[in-house]
TrEMBL record:
EC number: 4.1.1.48
GO molecular function, one term: phosphoribosylanthranilate isomerase activity
Domain of life: Eukaryota
GO biological process: L-tryptophan biosynthetic process
UniProt keyword terms in alphabetical order: Amino-acid biosynthesis, Aromatic amino acid biosynthesis, Decarboxylase, Lyase, Tryptophan biosynthesis
Domain spans labelled Indole-3-glycerol phosphate synthase: 121-383
Catalytic activity: 1-(2-carboxyphenylamino)-1-deoxy-D-ribulose 5-phosphate + H(+) = (1S,2R)-1-C-(indol-3-yl)glycerol 3-phosphate + CO2 + H2O
Matches recorded under NCBIfam families: PRK00278.1-4 (NF001372), PRK00278.2-4 (NF001377)
PROSITE patterns: IGPS
Source species of the chain: Canna indica (Indian-shot)
Pathway the protein contributes to: Amino-acid biosynthesis; L-tryptophan biosynthesis; L-tryptophan from chorismate: step 4/5
Entries under PANTHER family matching the protein: INDOLE-3-GLYCEROL-PHOSPHATE SYNTHASE (PTHR22854:SF2), TRYPTOPHAN BIOSYNTHESIS PROTEIN (PTHR22854)
Name assigned to this protein: indole-3-glycerol-phosphate synthase
Pfam families per record: IGPS (PF00218)
C-alpha cells in the first residue's frame, strides 16, 4: 500500500485518509532529502511503501493522540506538497517578510542585491534563522525538552491580565524590560533587568515582557532567567522573534509563561502549530498583528485567546495609535467580543489619554516599553502613564 510519510516530531499526512497531524515519534519514514516545512519541520511527502498494519497503526496513533481537525486538508500543506515554495505560500497570505532559509551567515563575497533583506524586520528574521540554527546544533530539541521538565512552573499569563483589569478598571499593564531597539537606539544606559522588573511589579504591572533578542534589542535569555529566579511573581512574556517551534520550548525552559507570535512573519499553519505547542506547555501565545489582513487571518484561527495590535509598523517603524481603533472597528471588534479574545494595545503609549483612547476602542491590556523604561524609576512612571496609582 502506497502513501505514508513521516518525519520526527512533525506534520504527517496520510494521503489515503487525507489526514494530517503532528506526530512526536518517528513512525514510518520519508526521504531525508525532501524539503522541510518550516517550523514544524515536516518533510515534503515522499510516498513510501509500508504495510497495511503500519499504516493503520499510524492513523490510529494520529487520531487518538492529536487534535488535528485544523490541519486536515490544510490548503497550505497541499500547496507545499504540490511543490510551491514556502515563501510563495506565505506571500499568498499577504506576508511580505520572506525567509532566507539560511543556516549560516553568508560571507561578504556571497552577498548580492537580491539576497539583501528589504527592511529591518526581514533583516532580523534572516539573522534569527542563523541564530536558531546555531543554537539548535548545540542544544537539540530533545535536550531542551528535558530542560523544560525542570523549569519553574508556568504562571497564568491571561489570568493575571484579567485579574488586573477587574481590580483596577484600567487595561492590564504588560511592562517591557527593554534596553534598546532598532528604532530608538539605547533607551536606558544603566540597565538592570531584575531591578526594573521588581519596580514594575511593585507599582502594579500585571505581567512583564522581557526582550531576549541580543543583536537588535540588547536583550538576552539570561535576563528572563534572572528575573524569574529573583522571585518576581508577574507572569513573563518572552519577547522574541519566533520562527521555529524549538524557540518556544527554549523560552519555557528559561521560565517564560508566554511567547510572542508575529502574524506578519508566520503563515497560518505555523501560528496554529505554535499555539498548539504553547497550549501543551501551558503557556499563553500573544499573536501580534499590525493591519487588517493580519487581523482577519488571526480571527479565523480557532483557539486564539490573546491578540496584540501593534501600533508600530515593524517594517517602517511608523507609530500611530489610531491603528488599534482601526482594527477593532465594526465586524472585527464584534468577532473579538464574541470570541472573548483579550486585545493588547502595543507600542507608542505615553500618557493617560493614550491609555483611555485604546481602552475606549476595546483594549483590555497594554504593552508599554519606551515611556516607562526611559524614566529614572520605570516603576514609579506607571502612575504617570495611567494618571493614577494602580499598585495593589
Ligand atoms: O516601547 P513601546 O513603544 O512602548 O513598545 C513596546 C512594545 O510594543 C514593542 O517593544 C514591540 C511590540 N511588538 C514587538 C515585536 C518585537 C519587538 C518589539 C516589539
Amino acid at each position: 500500500m502506497e502513501g505514508i510519510l513521516a518525519g520526527t516530531s512533525q506534520i504527517v499526512r496520510v494521503p489515503m485518509m487525507a489526514s494530517l497531524a503532528v506526530i512526536r515519534s518517528p513512525m514510518l519514514f520519508s526521504s531525508e532529502r525532501a524539503p522541510r516545512f518550516p517550523l514544524c519541520g515536516a518533510r515534503r511527502l515522499v510516498p513510501v511503501r509500508c504495510s497495511k498494519s503500519d499504516e493503520e497503526a499510524a492513523i490510529a496513533y494520529i487520531r487518538k493522540k492529536l487534535m488535528i481537525d485544523d490541519f486536515v486538508n490544510s490548503i497550505e500543506v497541499m500547496e507545499w506538497e504540490s511543490g510551491m515554495s514556502l515563501n510563495d505560500i506565505a506571500a499568498k497570505q499577504g506576508i511580505r517578510i520572506r525567509r532566507s532559509y539560511r543556516t549560516e551567515y553568508p560571507s561578504e563575497g556571497m552577498k548580492n542585491e537580491q539576497d539583501s533583506p528589504r527592511n529591518i524586520l526581514e533583516e532580523i528574521i534572516w539573522d534569527k534563522e542563523v541564530e536558531v540554527a546555531q543554537f539548535k546544533r548545540t542544544k537539540p530539541l530533545e535536550m531542551v525538552k528535558k530542560a523544560v521538565e525542570s523549569a519553574p512552573p508556568v504562571r497564568d499569563f491571561i489570568g493575571a491580565l484579567k485579574e488586573s483589569y477587574d481590580r483596577t478598571g484600567f487595561p492590564a499593564l504588560i511592562a517591557e524590560v527593554k534596553k534598546a531597539s532598532p528604532s530608538r537606539g539605547v533607551l536606558r544606559e544603566n540597565f538592570d533587568p531584575v531591578e526594573i522588573a521588581k519596580t514594575y511589579e511593585k507599582h502594579g504591572a500585571a505581567c512583564l515582557s522581557i526582550l531576549t533578542d541580543r543583536k537588535f534589542f540588547q536583550g538576552g535569555f539570561e535576563n528572563l532567567e534572572a528575573v524569574r529566579k529573583a522571585g518576581v511573581e508577574c507572569p513573563l512574556l518572552c519577547k522574541e522573534f519566533i520562527i521555529d517551534a524549538w524557540q518556544i520550548y527554549y523560552a519555557r525552559s528559561k521560565g517564560a509563561d508566554a511567547v510572542l507570535l508575529i502574524a506578519g512573519v508566520l503563515p497560518d499553519l505555523d501560528i496554529k502549530y505554535m499555539t498548539m505547542i504553547c497550549r501543551e506547555l501551558g503557556m499563553a501565545a500573544l499573536v501580534e498583528v499590525h493591519d487588517e489582513r493580519e487581523m482577519d487571518r488571526v480571527l479565523r484561527i480557532q483557539g486564539i485567546q490573546l491578540i496584540g495590535i501593534n501600533n508600530r509598523n515593524l517594517e517602517t517603524f511608523e507609530v500611530d495609535i489610531a491603528n488599534t481603533k482601526k482594527l477593532l472597528e465594526g465586524k472585527r471588534g464584534e468577532i473579538v467580543r464574541q470570541k472573548g479574545i483579550i486585545v493588547v494595545g502595543e507600542s507608542g503609549l505615553f500618557v493617560p489619554e493614550d491609555i483611555s483612547y485604546v481602552q475606549n476602542v476595546g483594549v483590555r491590556a497594554v504593552l508599554v516599553g519606551e515611556s516607562l523604561i526611559k524614566q529614572a524609576d520605570p516603576g514609579k512612571a506607571i502612575s504617570g502613564l495611567f494618571g493614577k496609582d494602580i499598585s495593589k
